[in-house]
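Onboarding guide, step 5: your first structure request.
Type a short instruction followed by the sequence, for example:

Predict the 3D structure of this protein.
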Amino acid sequence: MADSGGDTGPREEPISVLYVDDEPDFAALAAEFLHRENDRFVVETEERAVEALDRLTAGGFDCVVSDYDMPEMNGLELLEAVRERSLRLPFVLVTGKGSEEIASEAVSAGVTDYLRKRGGRERYVILANRIENAVSQYRAEREATHHRRVSELVRDVTRALVGATSRDEVEQAVCDRVAGSEPYRFAWIGEPDPETERIRPRTIGGDDSGYLDAITVTVDGPRSRGPAGTALRENRVVVAQNVDDDPSFEPWREDALERGFHSVAGVPLAHDGTVYGVLLLYAAYPNAFDGTERALVADLGDAIGHAIEGIAVRERLERQYQDLFELAPVMYVLTSEQDGHPVVTDCNQRVLDRLGYGHDEVVGGSLADLYTEESATLLLDEGGYERALDGEFTREERQLVASDGSVVETLLRAVPRYDSEGRTVGTLTLFVDVTERRRARTIATQAAAMDASMDGMAVFDDRGVYHYVNEAHGRIYGRDAADLVGENWRTLYDDDEAERLEQEAMPLLAAGESWQGEAVGRRADGSLFPQELSLSPLDDGRFVCVIRDSTERRKAKRELERQNARLDEFASLVSHDLRNPLNIARGNVELARTDDAATDASLDRAEAALERMDRLIDDVLALARGVDEGDLSPVSLRRTARSCWQGDDESIEVVGDLRFLADRVRLQRLLENLFRNSVEHGSTSNRSGAGDSVDRGATEGRSEAASGDTATHADRSGGRPDDDATARVRLGPLGDEAGFFVADDGPGIPPEKRDAVFEFGHSTARKGTGLGLGIVERIADAHGWECRLTESTEGGARFEFAGVTVVEGGGPPHPEPSTND
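The system replies with structure tokens like these:
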């Protein structure tokens, strides 16, 4: 910071002398001689010592020259009176008597010099030299003392600034200390008013005797040219050394002189280029601010500006901290230790809002009062607060109690709080509310478990508007989950279904209960689907909805029911059909034991019954055995058919090959059953009745033995029973889709009978099991094939199997059209 004053370099200052002598002519003569010897002398005279004392007390003189022998008060008495008033002015005593006694008393009283009255010019030359030397020494001592005093003042003010906590405190400390230190009479600190451009006082020190009320100082304009305005504008020390003749001080001269202000300094209070205000110092005599003092007050201004900047930064940080403290998304509590207990000294607004208390209900009370009983025990009885005071506290869980009695789950972090001397006085405690987080985690855990079995989850409010929709929920409805947020759940159901749910489920939810049941949802494409629906209320007044698309479950249920029905049929069939051959076998064995003549025939019949039972067992096992995906392998239709056919080669024709995935053993059983069916029901000996019977030409009058022979032969050989039965079998790939066919030239099956042949127990052969074609359909279903029964071109039966998985090279070289065999 630059400084400036009324003087720009060393110059000879006037020497003001008060000459006291009861002989006015002699005093006037002496004054004339002194002025002639040194034109710096400004000599005023006074006849009476009492009046002289008053004038000296008022100030303005650099030296006193007094006659000794005067009425009312002699020179020594005047000297003593001057020294009693702590006036250290040079005092030269002039006497007409050369008494050693007077000289001794004068020295004892603190006289500066002592001269005898003599005539002639030589006496005044000596007196002028003595006065000049005395004043020079006096001024030097006065300046040294003053500089010491100003330096001490600067140090004192600087110390005061260290402990100040506000700008007002800083400025008041400065003004009070400056005004109480010589040679200053008055000090004030001002700052610009942006609206009026006036420099308005912020702080005053000393007695201004109404001076500030009488004057106007501005930042710009005619009343801004003095020390205050210039110091603010130019950021430098500006001095009016002599108010009486300084032209820049003309607007305020009269008011200043009336109050004894003869020198004024304006000191900017600035730091890093920012001017915060100006300090005005008023001295009781002219030329009070020499270069040294201006440098000292410049340093003082820098110190004050730095202190104000520091306080401004601290206040700004405190405001930021307070904003952070108040607006933080966590709860803050300050405590102080009182008799080992934590007493709340402050808290942020979030504490009050979350717990529902007023400020006075929390501040001043024990922290334990906000805790549940269990948490209070951890705080007080198990060392929680002591660990926090010692800085050993990390993070723990605590439960707070709200004004309505509800419990707020929190994570707690506490650290020691210190005073300015570093002593631990309490704690800064931070509470993170994890109630909702834990509730959400619980809901998410529950939802995850529910999601694993019921797929979709959503949360909606009391208006029915979705707040959250998971991906599975959106996928079930054919929608993006994000698009459903903000929509109403009623849009996912037909009006009638939505109304039903409103009437059945919503009253329970409003009462805080859950609802579970079935509903029919509507996908984005308008299709309807069955669903399992679960609705439950949440603590925050919203509701959670969990759904599962039950389409596949219903299909599985129907399939299970169908399979159970088949098992019932199996049980009935096996119970009936096994019991009959057992009874036959048992009866023939008993007959053989009693009738030797019939032994061979009885045993033959028993053997036939047992063989039929064996076939039944094989068929039942075939029905019970499923198809495992791991059992599938590439097979050749041609090779498999040849391996299954046990008749003559002329009776079977494979019109093409097909390679596809199948369970080889199960495929063989399927073909064997079809071949047996063709042979048993398609022999030429039986075709004559084909047009009259729905049972593919089987005659009711056929002998049991013949039928038994045919069945036995077909079962064992997989082909025709004898050479006369010339039924032919043809098989090969389907022409227009992935699959194969097996056809014969027998009597065929009437359309109205075609569904019945696949039913368990249906057979036109008396010795048949009635399971053969049922097993064929079962094996096809297990592979995922479609089984169809049509008529061959020769009028026989044609079984088609579509949907097989063809492997490489599996295309038929000579595929047969579906309309021809």
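Each response can be followed by summary notes, for example: The CA atoms of residues 506 and 515 lie 8 Å apart.
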